[in-house]
Amino acid sequence: MPQYDFDLGVLGGGSAGLTITAGAAQLGVRTLLAEKEDKLGGDCLHYGCVPSKALVKAAHVYHTARNTARFGLPELDMKPVDYRHVAERIKSVIDVIQVHDSEERFCELGAKVVFGAARFLDAHTIQVNGVTYSAKTWVIATGTSPMIPGFEGLDSTPHLTNREIFSLETLPHSMIILGAGPIACEMAQAFARLGAKVSVVQRSQQILSKEDKDMADTLMDVMRREGVDFYLDTSIVRVQDLGEMRQVVFTMGDDNKQQISLQADALLVALGRTPNLDDLGLNDIGVVYDKKGLTLDARLRTTRKHIYGAGDVTGNYQFTHAAGYEGGIVIRNAVFRLPTKVNYTNMPWCTYTDPELASIGLNEKRANAEGIDYTVWTEHFHRNDRSVAEGEEVGSIKMLLDSQERPLGIQILGPQAGELVGEWVAVMNGNVKLSTVVSAVHPYPTLAEINKRVVGNLFAGKLYSEKVKKGLKFFFNLRGRACGCNESS
C-alpha cells in the first residue's frame, strides 16, 4: 500500500477549505491545507461577504442619518463621506474575524498550513514553493476570481473588481457598474447612499436575473428613487480610458442602433466569476473541468474519485453557506466513507440590499422553467405593524405551494429578509406542516409575523368559506351578520 505524507490534502483556505480542514483535523485526520494567498479566509473574508456587509452597514447608517425627517426628527447637517475612514473600519472588521481563520488556530486543531501556489505533479502529489506534499485524498476548494470579459478597450482601461472596491482611498464622485447581480446591486446602492452618482449597465432585461421579475423590479424602483440609474438589455460596444474618467459605450434593445455613452471616474466590473483551476495542472492528472467549474458527481467527487471539489469551484451555488454545506458532504464521504449526495433543494440565499431579497427553494421563474404546477400566496409588508412603525413598508413575501399545498419555495423582499427566511429554512428542511406554522404564536409586533400571515391567508380562505358558515349556522343556530355594511343586496 502506498505511503503518503498526509491522509487528506486541501487546496484553498476559503470557506469550504477551512470547513473541511477544521473538521478533518479534529477527527484525527492528518491534514494539509495549502493556500496561495498569504492569509486564510478566502474571498469571503477579504473581498466578499464580510467587507461588503461592513460597507452596506456604513451606507445604511449614513443614509438613515440623512433622512431623519422621515421619523419626525430634526434634519442633520451631514458632512461628505471620507472613504478612508470607511475602508479603515472595513479592515478592522476583517482583522477581528481573521483571528478565527488564522494559521495558528488551524495548527492548534492539528492541521499543517502552507502558503503558496500549488500544482499537481501527479494524482496524489502537489508542489508548493518547490516542496512536494502527497496525500491519499485531495479536496480542491480554490474558489473563483472576477470574470473580466473581452470588451474592446477594457484591458487597457483602469477598472475595479471586488478585490479593490473595499480599499479605495477616496469616494468616487461617479461610478459605472457593469452587471446587476447581487454584488453589483449591493455596491450600487451602498455607493449611491455614500454620495456617488451610480449608473448600472446590465445585459439582461432585469436586475438580479435569477430572481422573479416582480421582486427585482420593486427593488430596482427603490434604488432608482435613491438616485441609481439603470440601463437594461444592453450590449457593450467599447470601454475607454479618458485619463481621469472612464467611458462605457453601449446600445440598448434589439435594434442595437442608438449608442449611449456614459462617463464616470470609477468603473466596477461585476459580471460573474471564473473558477481558479487553470494553474493546478488538472489536465495532466485527468481531472475534468470547464469554464463553470469542476465536473463532479453527486458525492462531490471529480473524475478522479479520490479528489473532491467544494465551494465556488463546483459551479453551483456560490455562497459561503453553500461552501460550508459542501464541506460537510466531503467530510462524510472522504473521512467517514458514508456515501452522501448533495441536495440543494432547500438552499437559501440573500441579496443584502435595502430592502433585502431572500429566497429558499423554487421561485416562479424556476418553477415555470421546470414545468411545475404551483399556486402563489402573498402578504405585503405595508400590512405588517412593525414595518409601518419603522417606516420599512416596501416589499412582500411570496409563498409557492405544490398541488398538495406543501411549500415549494419562499421569496421575501423586505426589511431583514435574510433573517426572516431562517424560519422557512427550519420549516422546509424539517418538513413542518403549514398548519403548525399558522398555529404558532409569534411575538407582536415583529417582522416575523409576516411568515405566519402569508400561511394564514391560505387557511383563511378555507376557514371563512360559505360552506363553514352554513355548517355553523345549521348546527349552532347562528344568525349571521350584525352590520349591514357591504352586505350584498
List keywords for this structure.
single chain, 489 residues, alpha/beta, FAD/NAD(P)-binding domain, Enolase-like, domain 1, 3 domains, 7-stranded mixed sheet, 5-stranded antiparallel sheet, globular
How would you describe this protein?
The chain is built from 14 helices and 21 strands. The protein has 489 residues and is α/β, with parallel strands linked by helices. It folds into 3 domains: 143 residues, FAD/NAD(P)-binding domain; 118 residues, FAD/NAD(P)-binding domain (3-Layer(bba) Sandwich), CATH 3.50.50; 119 residues, FAD/NAD-linked reductase, C-terminal dimerisation domain (Enolase-like, domain 1, 2-Layer Sandwich). The strands form 5 sheets. Strands 1, 2, 3, 4, 5, 6 and 16 form a 7-stranded mixed β-sheet that branches. The protein has a 5-stranded antiparallel β-sheet with strand order 17-18-21-20-19, with helices on both faces. Helix 3 crosses helix 4 and helix 3 packs parallel to helix 6. It is globular. The termini are far apart. The relative contact order is 0.11.
Helix content: 25-40%
Query: How far apart, in Å, are the first and last alpha carbons?
Result: 90 Å
Taking all residues together, what is the mean pLDDT? 96
Would you state the CATH class of the largest domain?
Answer: Alpha Beta
Number of strands: 21
Number of self-contained structural domains: 3
Provide the CATH topology of the largest domain.
FAD/NAD(P)-binding domain
CATH superfamily of the largest domain: FAD/NAD(P)-binding domain
Tell me the strand percentage band: 15-25%
